[in-house]
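Hi support team,

I've been running sequence recovery on a batch of backbones for a student project. Most finish fine, but this one hangs at about 90% for roughly twenty minutes before it completes. I'm not sure whether the input is malformed or the queue is just slow. I've pasted the structure tokens below so you can try to reproduce it. Let me know if you need the job ID as well.

Thanks,
M.K.
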């Protein structure tokens, strides 16, 4: 007597093990992509699409309330022939160098001190370096404007004590660059200090103790132990500081309230982002403004690539 399966029994029978295993393997492979998918969806909507659209708009004479005429590379030709663009590019690079180099050196030195010095309330001092980072940019601009004021500023008063004539930092090119760079460095050095400090605390103290027993000085330990160990995080902070420094916008805008987006009567502190905003949203020349944005993007990519190549070379030398 043969036992035949009814349709109901066939429908309720479990799937073969091979099918179940294949489904589990497929789920395990797709799960990581599902976890990271929200980031890439948001990046595509708010990051990649605006970037691609900027390249597209740069090819047009784009008026948001008027005609949109395809002009090809005319916006780029106009940009390279515009002295205002080169002035803004020079100001941007100058402020970036003046703010990034002292900022990172000071952060590295302070992290080394906080990691090795025996301080009471060490946690308080380590956390207090974040105060500039959480301070409002507007409040920072007001305070620094008072400190660097030509007539009543503390800095000019101190300079007067040694016979130096007052400097109008907001009206001179180098003075405005120093003022803005000081604001940027003061705001970000604490953030970079904590990054360096976290990396330093991962280094075993036995390494420093062994070097001290072998007769290594403090400078030698810093040069041959601290700096090589911090090389990856130093490269990271250099790249991020470069990106942020080339996109500086708020500080020069707040320091030039009387002149607005031009940042001075002769545009002495106008950065590329201010020039971009002036042309795009001040003059409503979206095509020309987008071309400036493309140029800024290329500049950031090139400098980041140089930093990446330099980091590979440093890593190769450190091995």
């Amino acid at each position: 007597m043969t036992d035949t399966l009814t349709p109901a029994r066939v429908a309720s029978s479990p799937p073969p093990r091979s099918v179940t295993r294949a489904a589990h393997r497929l789920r395990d492979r797709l799960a990581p992509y599902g976890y990271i998918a929200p980031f890439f969806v948001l990046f595509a909507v708010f990051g990649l699409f605006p970037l691609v659209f900027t390249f597209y708009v740069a090819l047009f004479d784009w008026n948001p309330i008027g005609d949109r005429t395809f002009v090809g590379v005319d916006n780029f030709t106009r940009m390279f022939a515009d002295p205002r663009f080169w002035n803004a590019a020079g100001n941007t690079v100058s402020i970036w160098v003046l703010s990034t180099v002292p900022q990172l050196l000071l952060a590295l030195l302070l992290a080394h001190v906080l990691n090795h010095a025996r301080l009471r309330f060490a946690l308080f001092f380590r956390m207090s370096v974040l105060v500039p980072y959480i301070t409002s940019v507007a409040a920072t601009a007001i305070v620094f404007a008072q400190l660097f004021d030509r007539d009543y500023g503390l800095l000019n008063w101190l300079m007067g004590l040694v016979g130096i004539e007052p400097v109008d930092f907001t009206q001179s090119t180098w003075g405005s660059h120093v003022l803005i760079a000081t604001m940027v460095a003061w705001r970000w050095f604490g953030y970079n200090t904590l990054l360096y400090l976290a990396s330093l605390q991962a280094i075993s103290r036995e390494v420093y103790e062994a070097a001290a027993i072998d007769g290594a000085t403090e400078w030698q330990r810093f040069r041959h132990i601290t700096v090589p160990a911090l090389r990856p995080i130093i490269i990271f902070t250099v790249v991020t500081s470069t990106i942020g420094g080339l996109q500086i916008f708020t500080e020069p805008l707040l320091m030039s309230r009387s002149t607005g987006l031009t940042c001075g009567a002769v545009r002495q502190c106008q950065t590329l982002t201010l020039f971009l905003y002036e042309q795009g949203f001040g003059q409503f020349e979206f095509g020309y403004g987008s071309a400036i944005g493309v140029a800024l993007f290329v500049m950031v990519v090139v400098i980041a690539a140089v930093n990446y190549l330099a980091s590979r070379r440093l890593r190769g030398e450190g091995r």
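--
Follow-up from support: It reproduced on our side and the slowdown came from queue contention, not your input. Strands lie at 60-62, 68-70. No action needed from you.
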